[in-house]
């Protein structure tokens, strides 16, 4: 079941997303799946400025670039430290180790998720319908895996790097099956560039060509979108 919340912009989406997060916490959520990218920043700002206490909670991030150390300024671990963890620490925060070998890291990460079942998973949406770093064509049965990024994702993420040549071409990501295990999922999307992906996610067929369409099969999904992202619904 998908519940859709329309907001006017990303700031309003941050407030709506914060309410979902705070409600889950009030209902006893212990483990939060977290996402990077520009989309969740407004939720993290609301959390940072709130009096929520996360010091006994656990977070598990979706993905990390392969080859980047946690202290690399473009790593997702660095992003999380900067936007959330340094200001609102959790008891434990897991992000895939971009420097670890793929076979051991993906196995280890699946074990972390199994040991800490995610109550609420936050997600952004890629322009091509990807979630985490699960690109179109990823099998819905996939757990944590090494992924080869598509050209469109590399280009979309190049704005964070000095130039496109510096964007890593591989990443470690929770798979679609890992994401679908979460008790509740909050996916957010803002801006016209996401409109096609939003329409395909909500109204299109459930197909591995659109990773986010898998969410139609999840029992508890909240979608927060602004008017521009909703324009093709
Ligand atoms: C990256 C991340 C995704 C994110 C997507 C969208 O590819 N791996 O988790 O959802 O970008 O990013 P943004 O929120 O900046 O549009």
Task: Give a quick rundown of the structure.
30% of the residues lie in helices and 19% in strands. With 233 residues, the chain is of the alpha/beta class.
What does this structure look like?
30% of the residues lie in helices and 19% in strands. By secondary structure, the protein is α/β, with parallel strands linked by helices. It has a single domain (3-226), classed as 3-Layer(aba) Sandwich (Rossmann fold), CATH 3.40.50. The longest helix is centred in the first third of the chain and has 17 residues, at 10-26. 2-amino-2-deoxy-6-O-phosphono-alpha-D-glucopyranose (GLP) binds next to helix 5. 2-amino-2-deoxy-6-O-phosphono-alpha-D-glucopyranose is lined by residues 35-39, 62-63, 124-126, 132-133, 153, 157.
Q: What characteristics describe this protein?
A:
binds 2-amino-2-deoxy-6-O-phosphono-alpha-D-glucopyranose; seven-stranded parallel beta sheet; Glucosamine6P_isomerase_CS; Glucosamine-6-phosphate deaminase; carbohydrate metabolism; alpha/beta; hydrolase; NagB/RpiA_transferase-like; three-stranded antiparallel beta sheet
What is the topology?
Layout: E1 2-7, H1 10-26, E2 31-34, H2 41-48, E3 58-61, E4 63-65, H3 76-85, E5 92-94, H4 102-115, E6 120-123, E7 145-148, H5 151-157, E8 170-173, H6 176-180, E9 184-189, H7 195-203, E10 221-226
Parallel strand pairs: 1-10, 2-3, 2-6, 3-5, 6-9, 9-10
Antiparallel strand pairs: 4-8, 7-8
This protein binds 2-amino-2-deoxy-6-O-phosphono-alpha-D-glucopyranose.
Residues 35-39, 62-63, 124-126, 132-133, 153, 157 line the site of 2-amino-2-deoxy-6-O-phosphono-alpha-D-glucopyranose (GLP).
